[in-house]
Amino acid sequence: MPPSNNKDLMSYDEDTGRFQFGPDLKANIQEKLSDLSDEEYDRLLDLVRLEPTSNAKLKNQWDMASGSEVHQYLESELNPFYYRGDNSYIRVTKEAKDFVRENSGLNQYVTEESGSSEDVSENIRNRDLLMDLVSVAQSLGHLPDEEEIEAHSKYSPDRFREEFGGLFEACQEAGVVPDSVTKDDYTAARDAKKEQKGESQTEEEESESEPSGPSEAELIEELQWVDEEVEGIPYPADMNGSGAFTAHDYQEQFGSWDDALDVAGIDKEEQLLEDMQRVADEVGEDMTAPQMNEYGRYSSTMAARYFGSWTEAKERFQEWSKEQEEEEDSSEEFDNMVNDRLDDILG
Q: Which of 223, 313, 316 lies closest to 263 in space, CA to CA?
C-alpha cells in the first residue's frame, strides 16, 4: 500500500510542469545515478550539454539508426533523468543535472537560480549558446567558423556576436580555445580556409558529390512513420521531437512542410475537411471561426492558412460536401440497380 501522505515523495514544479522527487525518491534517484555505466553517464552528459535537444540531434550524436532508437534508449536506460518540455524538446531533471555538475566540471554551464530574474535569464541564455558551441566544436574537432556554425549550430553567428562580441570570444568563453591560439591565429586560419574554398569551388561544382543530407526516400519513410505514431496531422514539432530528421530537412528538400505531407501521401486537406464536417454536424454548415476553434480538432487559423482564408476554407468545404453527397447518391443508385438486377435473375 502507498503511504497516505505522499508530500515527501514528490511535489509539482510549475517551472518545468513536472512532479519533482521528494527526499525518499531523491535518494533512490541518487543511487541510480551512481550506478550508471560509462556509456550511460557519457550520454547523460550529452543531454546536459545539448539541452534542450531532440531525437534527431541525439541520433547524430550517438550514431544511432533512427529517432525511434533514441527514444527507446532514453526510455529504457535514462528514463528517471529526463523529460520533454515545450515542443517535445528533451530536458534533464534537476537531480540528474546536479549530479552532472558535481561530477563533470560543467559548473559554468549548469547555473543556479539567483535573486535577479534578469541575471537568471542572461545566464540561461548564455549557457544554452555556450553548451551548443561546445557540442559543435567537439563534433568538428576544431574551432568552428561562421559557415560551420550555420551548418551545425541551433543558433546563428549573429547570436554569438550579440552575446559575446564575436565567435572567437564566444569560443573563449566556452573554454574551447587552447591557450596557444590567439584571435589573429583564428582569423588567419579562417581567411586561409575561405581562400582555399574559393580556389576549389569550380572543381567541386564540376565533380559529382555524394548528397550531404538524407535522401528523399528516407525523409518520406520517416515522415510516414511519424504520421503513424501521432494522432491526426503530424506537425513539424512531432518530427523534431520523435523523428530521425528535422523539419528543416523537409523544408530544404520539399520547399514546405505541407508539400512534404503531399509527397508522403498524407492528405492534410482531406483531414481538415473531415474535421470541418464534424463541426458542421454539430453547429450547422454556416459555422464560424470561433465555433471551429471550440469544436474542431484543428483551428480555424490552420484551415485559413492552408486554403488561403477562412472564407476560402468554407467555400472549399461546401464544394467538398457537395461532392461527397453526389458520390453517396451515385453509390446508392448503383446498389439499387444491382439489387434490381439480382431480383430479376432470381425471380
A: 223
Cα–Cα distance for residue pair 157/166, rounded to 1 Å: 8
pLDDT tens digit sequence for 123-167: 555 777 888 888 888 888 888 888 888 888 888 888 888 777 788
pTM reported for the whole predicted model: 0.36
Span 12-27, pLDDT tens digits: 455 544 444 444 444 5
